[in-house]
């Protein structure tokens, strides 16, 4: 009994054991395989494309709001003129540009939503409404910078009141294009080509002879029989010998039984 136990302990001690480094590398390899499978999923690319679209859209909305905030001063100066804060018109002039901006932002949000559903927005009234809103902002800003209340024209202010409304106008035109392209990229990334359904082909029935053969020999005989069947001829003794390497009389016996 002690000899058997000693032999078992020696066998266990002779078996190689994984070191800590091997276990750590094996865990890293498993993690790398899981990450590769996840990153190769086309749905993940679609999610990343949609997140990128949201990020770009938020940035564009932020810059558009800043630009409209600046143009609001030019519109107020154009409408208020030499009026002071004591005049209600001076306060009411601050509401004109936010009203224009609210209409423009609502229009852009609606246009972006339509494009996200694959509906192109190319109607002429929509384009004209955007152009009128932004054109009015451009004219009032440039006019107020050329006719300041103190009479002193600042070239830098004229430039800003000219460029910023143009940038706002281009942002309003570009944002729907960004939405459309990002949605197209998302749909392309999510597009998974479904496999074409094909009619399943029945596997040829395995060849069975009356002679009992071991499993590996029977498998070799099945493969050779299927090959011969594909050639459109009957299995011969030579075919059996090529597959099993058996004596000629034994091969003839197997071939005869299969032919029967």
Features:
260 residues; mainly alpha; membrane; DUF2637 domain-containing protein; 10 helices
Instruction: Count helical runs.
Output: 10
- Net shape: elongated
N-to-C terminal Cα separation, in Å? Answer: 59 Å
Elements, N to C (H/E): HHHHHHHHHH
- The total tally of domains equals 2
Q: Mean pLDDT score, rounded?
A: 77
Low-confidence stretches: 193-201
- How much helicity do the residues have? over 70%
What does this structure look like?
Keywords: Membrane, Transmembrane, Transmembrane helix. It comes from Lentzea sokolovensis. Residues 7-21 have a biased composition (Basic and acidic residues). Helices cover 74% and strands 0% of the residues. By secondary structure, the chain is mostly helical. The chain folds into two domains: 42-190, no CATH class; 215-259. Helix 3 packs antiparallel against helix 7 (155-190). The protein is elongated, with a radius of gyration of 41 Å. The two termini are 59 Å apart.
Topology of this structure?
Blueprint: H1 2-14, H2 20-39, H3 42-80, H4 88-92, H5 96-116, H6 124-146, H7 155-190, H8 215-230, H9 237-244, H10 248-259
Helix pairs in contact: 3-5, 3-6, 3-7, 5-6, 5-7, 6-7, 8-9, 9-10
